[in-house]
Amino acid sequence: MTQRATVRFIADLFDNGRVVLNGDASPTSRDLDAMSRALVEFEPIWRGTLPHEPPALSMAAATWAGEMLYSACQMLIYRELGEDEITKRLTRPCPERPSRVVCYSVDLTFRFLPDLARIARAASEDDPLVKHLLQWASDWPLSSVGIKGIEHIDVEPFIHDRCLRTMYVDRIVAQTDTSRLKDERTVEALREAIGGFPELAPEFQQYLSSEELTNTP
């Protein structure tokens, strides 16, 4: 693998969300350094598209997420790598605990997690890769809106940040992901976003009253 592989991966993600892989080798430390530099280059472009002021960037968290997504894409394409290699490459935890800074930084690349999960599930719902993707989806709910079958969602690390809260609600509306409305803070954020125009999101009207929230399982 050359450094260009990881740089191209990040560039393709930010450009059109479609990537080309150059092999199944694990990224080296030099590859990851190149990926970090690419993230620093492209992050301000993404930042400029967001509502309100996003948190600062954690390079450790952003690079970890980029590496994990890169490796997961390899596992999807190079099926001969097998379950042991999937476990080896995809179980290393994020070096920092979830916080608004970390959630934002991970989301730079993990916002493509729903697309990857959809493709992996289409290949096989029982694929070991799917298990790891669903674990990430649970661990990083800001990035996983639209993924079905997530049992535990904790929005506490980011829900109090205005930018990330708005991003989260916008994604819920775009994906019609009513499964995310079991948390009162999320429902309140949805009310704020829709304001006096509930007709703009008819799929969510039943969730916009306190009575319905109380009865939501």
Question: What average pLDDT do the residues reach?
Answer: 91
Structural class: mainly alpha
Sketch the topology as an H/E string, one letter per element: HHHHHHHHHH
The geometry reads as globular
Poorly predicted runs: 211-217
Main pleated-sheet profile:
none
End-to-end separation in angstroms reads 48 Å
Helical proportion, percent range: 55-70%
Please count the helical segments. Answer: 10
Oligomer: single chain
Secondary structure elements and pairings:
Blueprint: H1 3-16, H2 29-47, H3 59-77, H4 82-90, H5 100-110, H6 113-123, H7 128-139, H8 162-175, H9 184-194, H10 210-215
Helix pairs in contact: 1-2, 2-3, 3-4, 3-5, 6-7, 8-9
Quick description:
This protein has 217 residues and is an all-alpha fold. It is 58% helix and 0% strand. The radius of gyration is 18 Å and the shape is globular.
What does this protein look like?
This protein has 217 residues and is mostly helical. It has a domain at 3-148. Helix content is 58%, strand content 0%. The protein is built from 10 helices and no strands. The chain has helices at residues 3-16, 29-47, 59-77, 82-90, 100-110, 113-123, 128-139, 162-175, 184-194, 210-215. The N and C termini lie far apart (48 Å). The model is unreliable at 211-217 (pLDDT under 50).
